[in-house]
Amino acid sequence: MKLLIKNGRVIDPQSGTDETLDILLDRGKITEIKPKIEGKGLKVIDASRLVVAPGFIDMHVHLREPGNEEKETIKTGALAAAKGGYTSIACMPNTAPVNDTRGVTEYILSEAKRNAVVNVFPIAAVTRGLCGEMLTDMADLSSAGAIAFSDDGQPIENSLVMRRALEYSKLLDTLIIDHCEDKNLSSEGIMHEGYYSYKLGMKGIPSSSEEITIARDIILAKETDARVHIAHLSVKGAVEHLKKAKKENVKVTAEVTPHHLLLNDSHMESFNTDLKVNPPLRSKDDVHALLEAIKEDYIDVFATDHAPHTPDEKDVEIDQAPFGINGLETAVSLLLDKLVNKNIIGIEKFIAMMSTNPARILGLENKGKIAVGSDADLTILKLHQEVVVDKNQFRSKSRNTPFHGWKLKGAPVMTIVGGKIVYP
Ligand SMILES: [Zn+2]
What we know:
Elements: E1 3-12, E2 17-26, E3 29-34, E4 43-46, E5 51-54, E6 56-61, H1 74-83, E7 86-91, H2 102-115, E8 119-124, H3 138-144, E9 148-150, H4 159-171, E10 176-178, H5 183-186, E11 191-192, H6 195-200, E12 204-205, H7 207-224, E13 228-230, H8 236-247, E14 252-256, H9 258-262, H10 284-295, E15 301-302, H11 311-314, H12 331-340, H13 347-362, E16 378-388, E17 407-417, E18 420-423
Parallel strand pairs: 1-4, 1-5, 6-7, 7-8, 8-9, 9-10, 10-13, 11-12, 13-14, 14-15
Antiparallel strand pairs: 1-2, 2-3, 5-16, 16-17, 17-18
The structure holds zinc ion.
């Protein structure tokens, strides 16, 4: 059935649109955008006083299937995404088995087709088994449907392996998503190395662990003229490298997570294992540098790094707990409340970083925009909707959020994928 969205404030950063418009959706596409659309036999949605945005895309999600279905499945992760306002998600390959062969990529795509209410794009491993040694068959994985390549969770320590990966990615016109960490420096670290790690007696992960790797990979991206996307940027020094590289037109893009913007290492005084994340929550100084870089347009994307874990896994001593925060169902409200409604960034930039930019970086030509002929993926927002984060209401299988109980203003109120309402 055709869907008509009436009287919404349509914001499309790609075309610079910000006006009250009607949008007609038919057979999975946007077919008309006008100040007034009338017609018979349509399902009409009144979007008065709501913002209509191109569908949000989270390019950094851990869905845990295959292999760790007790934490999350493709089905539950997609339900969580829809509730969180996302129409598309890209899932990292650190499953069991690792997504390093065509069979796993095809399995994820077929499960997604069967069970997922949002679009799911598999990211395949750069190296076999994420071991950092032998490259996967990137051409075969690309043709199977892998949208990008990453060993996320693990750095690629060998510079030659990273260089080869970049060379192949350029040939295939795909993207390497880079987890920047020097394991020799981070070793058994639990939290950011600094005042609070000394105070709390916890082993620290120094900023240099991230800075050294981003610096190396920018050098390699420059040398190979390949595209590299920096995952979960967290420290000031890494931001400096990113800025310099962008000024020199190196093909580097970057993402930041809500938790690295809204929390810092002082919160670790609570010893809450739900705050344990990799890269760790950094200092206030680092948070400030990240926010400034967003304002100056150096950071391209908000991504959640949605990393579900079961309560049993997190309900242990902090040094034993796994890294990760459950992000899909809290990100939009957190960012609307803390950044948009507090006038740190405008709504247009927010939408660009949630949709336009990730679509461009991932090469999703028919997504990330509101235009006639593009995919009928839309996220509808109510900027002043008051919500209280309640992890017990999550559609995700896991509950590991440090934001439980937070009162926030701004929320996704409807998610439309391929012209179908998938939330509420
Ligand atoms: Zn990572």
